[in-house]
Amino acid sequence: MATAIERWVDEQARLFKPKKVYWCDGSEKEAHELVEAGILDEQIEGQPVFQALNQHRWPKAFLHRSHPSDVARVEHLTYVCHPDKETAGPNNNWMDPDEAKRMMAKLSDGAMRDKTMYVLPYTMGHPDSPYAKACIQLTDIAYVAVSMRIMTRMSRSVIDKIGSREDFVKGIHSVGDFDPNKRFIMHFPDDHLVWSIGSGYGGNALLGKKCFSLRIASWLGKQEGWLAEHMVIMGVEDPKGNVTYITAALPSACGKTNLAMMRSALPGYKVWTLGDDIAWLNVGPDGRLWAINPESGFFGVAPGTSMQTNPNMMTALKKGAFYPTLFTNTALDLDTNEPWWEGMGIPPPRSALDWQGEHWEPSYKTKAAHPNSRFTVSIYNAPNLSKEFDDPKGVPISAMIFGGKRTSLIPLVFESLNWQNGVFAAARMGSETTAAATHKEGVLRRDPMAMLPFCGYNMGDYLQHWLAIGARMTNPPKIFAVNWFRKDEKNKFLWPGFGDNIRVLKWVIDRVNGSVEAKRTPIGFVPHIKDLDLRGLKISKPKLERLFKVDLKEWRPELADVRKLLEKFGDHMPPEIWREYETLKKEAGA
Ligand code: OXD
Ligand code: MN
């Protein structure tokens, strides 16, 4: 008798009408075959799906060029289809699930004609973890199949694990004909189903990532009592060898990957990475918060990644241990057959192909690599991988950091007064926008917990859930806010960032251990400058003072803007958050 998975795959094959159905096993041998087939397949505007790069300098690395209209997440085409709109909240596009399924079925009919339907069995999280989820994704492009091998734990054993259960996580993906007018990323939280058509881009197409591990998982977390978050997980080791585990949430392209991979500027301190994008957080029997990274790879922004900004990532990209490493929409140096991007820290190639495969020279005004060009690389290639990465129970979190890109107002770091106050600080965070999603650059966008594009239900209810999780912990992490991006009156960044951010993490750890005092302000505890370890850093006193300044005058317009955010969620906004708001307003004299 057919299993639930087989019945489901058959049903989708009848709809999509592929030439054949291929069940992946996630092996390296298979990945080689898929890459070889992709090299011969000109599926995207006459471009091959993969091109081999210089294997001597970039072992196991391949270049992929996407369809030119398909270079980022498409939030305006992303829907969360709960039975009612209220549950989805004002933070999500909503469509009635039956209507959405009818529309998607129409778009899917025959969409894989002449193509192969790949069946991808994988888990998000270590297969032995009690928190892992067993998933099946379908796709019609080898780029997605191979990317999923890097980003998830793909194996046939998942099929046995699911056995006769019907409630496995389902992902249906087809690039269709890349028509932006027929592009939709649909989530059906109650069915544990994501259905995505018309895009091959990471966040739209690797359905285990943003779609399942954040949007659907956040909803599962609400029902089951845990949190799915847009967070880095890292272990910071001090000179005595003690490791403190920290999570950090920052909106897309705010340096989250650099933080996760930081090479410390302070002697004796080391940062061990456990993940750069997603954390699943559970309250453990010890009353602490435990984190696992459901992913097993990095899907990072290439431009700006260099030996200066992120040496650990550059090492991972060249390591060639896990097969393969992918580059998407970078430029290609025609002399050396190497990938290149702006901010790589080396001079531009004399002669290159740009991200669309067009001839490019340094004198051109256009960018050679797309600003959202990416690498996909296994986390096992990381030289700073934490030895706890494969521990099924995860790591205990002592501090949670929230940040954003704010050129004024927000100090380099402050600590919240308590959990509830920290939830409010995280809820009001905002960032000047970036190119990772298709919207304008440089506009302030409020992004609670960096989850605005990823929370699969009403954000008011989500904040309530955060408060409820806090109430269940006897030993909750401390909550901090950071801002690496404050500028001076000459529009220059005040803080060097990157490896020097360890100085901030050291202060965070000192606060966790109760070894330093701090200054109480209306927004929380701000460091005494004397408690920062500034050895080896040249920074003037006025600059430091400005970095930590809490200017109450500037908080008035800020709070007026925060009010608008809170009001958007109506009755769903927890009264505790409003109380925090009113207290801050009073204390700030605003
Ligand atoms: C990402 C994003 O790709 O947040 O990680 O956009
Ligand atoms: Mn992200």
Q: Segments where pLDDT lies below 50 for 5+ residues?
A: none
Alpha carbon gap, first and last residue: 68 Å
CATH architecture of the largest domain: Alpha-Beta Complex
Shape: globular
Report the top-level CATH class of the largest domain. Alpha Beta
Element layout with pairings:
Elements: H1 4-16, E1 20-23, H2 28-40, E2 51-52, E3 61-64, E4 78-80, H3 85-88, H4 97-108, E5 116-124, E6 133-139, H5 142-151, E7 153-154, H6 157-162, E8 169-174, E9 184-188, E10 193-197, H7 202-205, H8 208-224, E11 227-229, E12 231-237, E13 243-249, H9 256-260, E14 270-275, E15 279-283, E16 289-292, E17 297-301, H10 311-319, E18 325-328, E19 331-333, E20 338-340, E21 352-353, E22 359-360, E23 374-378, E24 395-403, E25 413-415, H11 419-427, E26 430-432, E27 444-446, H12 459-472, E28 478-482, H13 502-512, E29 518-521, E30 524-527, H14 541-548, H15 552-568, H16 575-587
Parallel strand pairs: 1-5, 3-18, 4-9, 6-8, 8-10, 13-24, 24-28
Antiparallel strand pairs: 2-3, 5-6, 5-7, 9-10, 11-15, 12-13, 12-14, 15-16, 16-24, 17-23, 18-23, 19-20, 19-21, 21-22, 25-28, 26-27, 29-30
The protein binds oxalic acid and manganese (II) ion (MN).
